[in-house]
Amino acid sequence: MLIPARMSEAEEQRWVSVMLDKLAAQESKRLIGDAELGERAERLSVQYFDGRARPTSVRWVTNQNTRWGSCTPSEGSIRLSHRLQGMPEYVVDYVLLHELAHLLVPGHGPRFWRLLEAYPRTERARGYLEGVVAAGRLPHRPAADAD
Protein backbone atom coordinates (compact mmCIF):
# COMPACT_ATOMS: atom_id res chain seq x y z
CA MET A 1 0.00 0.00 0.00
CA LEU A 2 1.29 3.43 -0.85
CA ILE A 3 0.74 6.29 1.58
CA PRO A 4 1.93 9.91 1.55
CA ALA A 5 5.31 10.41 3.22
CA ARG A 6 3.91 13.40 5.14
CA MET A 7 1.66 11.18 7.29
CA SER A 8 2.61 10.76 10.91
CA GLU A 9 3.17 7.26 12.24
CA ALA A 10 -0.20 7.39 14.05
CA GLU A 11 -2.00 8.50 10.85
CA GLU A 12 -0.23 5.77 8.90
CA GLN A 13 -1.29 3.08 11.38
CA ARG A 14 -4.89 4.34 11.36
CA TRP A 15 -4.98 4.46 7.55
CA VAL A 16 -3.49 0.97 7.18
CA SER A 17 -6.05 -0.37 9.66
CA VAL A 18 -8.95 1.26 7.76
CA MET A 19 -7.72 -0.08 4.41
CA LEU A 20 -7.14 -3.60 5.75
CA ASP A 21 -10.68 -3.62 7.15
CA LYS A 22 -12.05 -2.55 3.76
CA LEU A 23 -10.04 -5.22 1.94
CA ALA A 24 -11.16 -7.91 4.38
CA ALA A 25 -14.81 -6.90 3.90
CA GLN A 26 -14.45 -6.99 0.11
CA GLU A 27 -12.69 -10.36 0.20
CA SER A 28 -15.26 -11.95 2.51
CA LYS A 29 -18.00 -11.03 0.03
CA ARG A 30 -16.11 -12.80 -2.75
CA LEU A 31 -15.15 -15.95 -0.88
CA ILE A 32 -17.16 -19.07 -1.48
CA GLY A 33 -17.17 -22.30 0.49
CA ASP A 34 -16.54 -25.85 -0.68
CA ALA A 35 -20.25 -26.55 -1.27
CA GLU A 36 -20.63 -23.50 -3.49
CA LEU A 37 -17.40 -24.41 -5.24
CA GLY A 38 -18.81 -27.84 -6.09
CA GLU A 39 -22.02 -26.28 -7.42
CA ARG A 40 -19.99 -23.87 -9.49
CA ALA A 41 -17.95 -26.72 -10.96
CA GLU A 42 -21.16 -28.56 -11.86
CA ARG A 43 -22.57 -25.47 -13.62
CA LEU A 44 -19.33 -24.95 -15.54
CA SER A 45 -19.22 -28.60 -16.58
CA VAL A 46 -22.77 -28.38 -17.92
CA GLN A 47 -22.09 -25.08 -19.69
CA TYR A 48 -18.75 -25.94 -21.30
CA PHE A 49 -18.44 -29.73 -21.29
CA ASP A 50 -22.06 -30.84 -21.70
CA GLY A 51 -21.97 -32.09 -18.10
CA ARG A 52 -19.42 -34.81 -18.92
CA ALA A 53 -16.91 -33.77 -16.23
CA ARG A 54 -18.35 -35.00 -12.94
CA PRO A 55 -16.07 -34.53 -9.95
CA THR A 56 -16.77 -36.47 -6.77
CA SER A 57 -15.35 -33.63 -4.67
CA VAL A 58 -14.25 -30.05 -5.17
CA ARG A 59 -12.62 -28.17 -2.32
CA TRP A 60 -10.24 -25.43 -1.28
CA VAL A 61 -6.87 -26.50 0.12
CA THR A 62 -4.11 -24.60 1.86
CA ASN A 63 -1.20 -26.89 0.97
CA GLN A 64 -0.81 -25.87 -2.69
CA ASN A 65 1.61 -23.00 -2.95
CA THR A 66 3.12 -23.74 -6.34
CA ARG A 67 -0.03 -24.79 -8.20
CA TRP A 68 -3.40 -23.10 -8.60
CA GLY A 69 -5.28 -26.39 -8.66
CA SER A 70 -4.93 -30.11 -8.95
CA CYS A 71 -7.05 -33.05 -10.01
CA THR A 72 -6.92 -36.77 -9.32
CA PRO A 73 -8.96 -38.25 -12.20
CA SER A 74 -9.00 -41.77 -10.70
CA GLU A 75 -10.76 -40.39 -7.62
CA GLY A 76 -12.64 -37.58 -9.38
CA SER A 77 -11.32 -35.07 -6.86
CA ILE A 78 -10.44 -31.45 -7.57
CA ARG A 79 -8.55 -29.18 -5.22
CA LEU A 80 -8.08 -25.43 -5.66
CA SER A 81 -5.42 -23.42 -3.89
CA HIS A 82 -6.71 -21.03 -1.26
CA ARG A 83 -4.57 -18.40 -2.99
CA LEU A 84 -7.33 -18.14 -5.63
CA GLN A 85 -9.83 -16.94 -3.04
CA GLY A 86 -10.62 -13.30 -3.66
CA MET A 87 -9.38 -13.37 -7.28
CA PRO A 88 -11.83 -12.40 -10.04
CA GLU A 89 -14.55 -14.96 -10.71
CA TYR A 90 -13.41 -15.56 -14.28
CA VAL A 91 -9.99 -16.63 -12.96
CA VAL A 92 -11.47 -19.10 -10.48
CA ASP A 93 -13.78 -20.37 -13.22
CA TYR A 94 -10.83 -20.91 -15.54
CA VAL A 95 -8.91 -22.92 -12.93
CA LEU A 96 -12.02 -24.98 -12.18
CA LEU A 97 -12.52 -25.63 -15.90
CA HIS A 98 -8.85 -26.55 -16.26
CA GLU A 99 -9.19 -29.17 -13.54
CA LEU A 100 -12.58 -30.36 -14.84
CA ALA A 101 -10.96 -30.86 -18.25
CA HIS A 102 -8.47 -33.23 -16.60
CA LEU A 103 -11.39 -35.47 -15.65
CA LEU A 104 -11.96 -35.86 -19.40
CA VAL A 105 -8.42 -35.67 -20.79
CA PRO A 106 -5.25 -36.41 -18.81
CA GLY A 107 -2.20 -34.31 -19.52
CA HIS A 108 -1.93 -31.03 -21.41
CA GLY A 109 -2.00 -32.19 -25.01
CA PRO A 110 -3.86 -30.59 -27.93
CA ARG A 111 -7.14 -32.34 -27.06
CA PHE A 112 -7.00 -30.91 -23.53
CA TRP A 113 -6.44 -27.33 -24.77
CA ARG A 114 -9.23 -27.69 -27.35
CA LEU A 115 -11.62 -28.34 -24.47
CA LEU A 116 -10.56 -25.10 -22.79
CA GLU A 117 -11.01 -23.09 -26.00
CA ALA A 118 -14.75 -23.19 -25.24
CA TYR A 119 -14.18 -20.83 -22.28
CA PRO A 120 -13.88 -17.31 -23.74
CA ARG A 121 -11.71 -15.96 -20.92
CA THR A 122 -9.03 -18.64 -20.96
CA GLU A 123 -6.23 -16.38 -22.23
CA ARG A 124 -7.25 -13.48 -20.01
CA ALA A 125 -7.31 -15.71 -16.92
CA ARG A 126 -3.95 -17.26 -17.79
CA GLY A 127 -2.49 -13.78 -18.21
CA TYR A 128 -3.89 -12.72 -14.84
CA LEU A 129 -2.34 -15.73 -13.11
CA GLU A 130 0.99 -15.16 -14.87
CA GLY A 131 0.89 -11.55 -13.63
CA VAL A 132 0.28 -12.70 -10.06
CA VAL A 133 3.26 -15.05 -10.27
CA ALA A 134 5.46 -12.33 -11.78
CA ALA A 135 4.41 -9.79 -9.15
CA GLY A 136 5.36 -12.27 -6.45
CA ARG A 137 8.89 -12.31 -7.81
CA LEU A 138 9.34 -8.53 -7.61
CA PRO A 139 11.55 -7.19 -4.84
CA HIS A 140 9.48 -5.54 -2.11
CA ARG A 141 10.56 -2.03 -1.15
CA PRO A 142 10.39 -0.99 2.49
CA ALA A 143 7.43 1.28 3.28
CA ALA A 144 9.75 4.26 3.84
CA ASP A 145 10.87 4.05 0.20
CA ALA A 146 7.33 3.80 -1.16
CA ASP A 147 6.63 7.51 -1.57
3D architecture notes:
- By secondary structure, this protein is mainly α.
- The chain has a single domain (32-136), classed as Metalloproteases ("zincins"), catalytic domain (Zincin-like, 2-Layer Sandwich).
- It contains five helices and three strands, in the order ααβββααα.
- Strands 1-3-2 form a three-stranded mixed β-sheet.
- Strand 2 (69-72) and strand 3 (77-81) form a beta hairpin.
- Helix 2 crosses helix 3 (89-104) and helix 3 (89-104) packs across helix 5.
- The radius of gyration is 19 Å and the shape is elongated.
- The N and C termini lie close together (10 Å).
- 20% of the residues are buried.
Radius of gyration: 19 Å
Number of helices: 5
Question: How many extended strands?
Answer: 3
How many structurally independent domains?
Answer: 1
Give the strand order, joined by hyphens, for the main sheet.
1-3-2
- In the CATH hierarchy, what is the class? Alpha Beta
The proportion of residues in beta strands is: 5-15%
**Cα end-to-end separation:** 10 Å
Q: CATH-wise, what's the superfamily? A: Metalloproteases ("zincins"), catalytic domain
Query: What is the H/E order?
Result: HHEEEHHH
Shape, principal axes of CA atoms: elongated
CATH architecture: 2-Layer Sandwich
Mean pLDDT: 87
Here the CATH topology equals Zincin-like
The major β-sheet equals: 3 strands, mixed
The parts where pLDDT drops under 50 for at least 5 residues are: none
What class would the helix/strand composition place it in?
A: mainly alpha
| Relative helix content | 40-55%
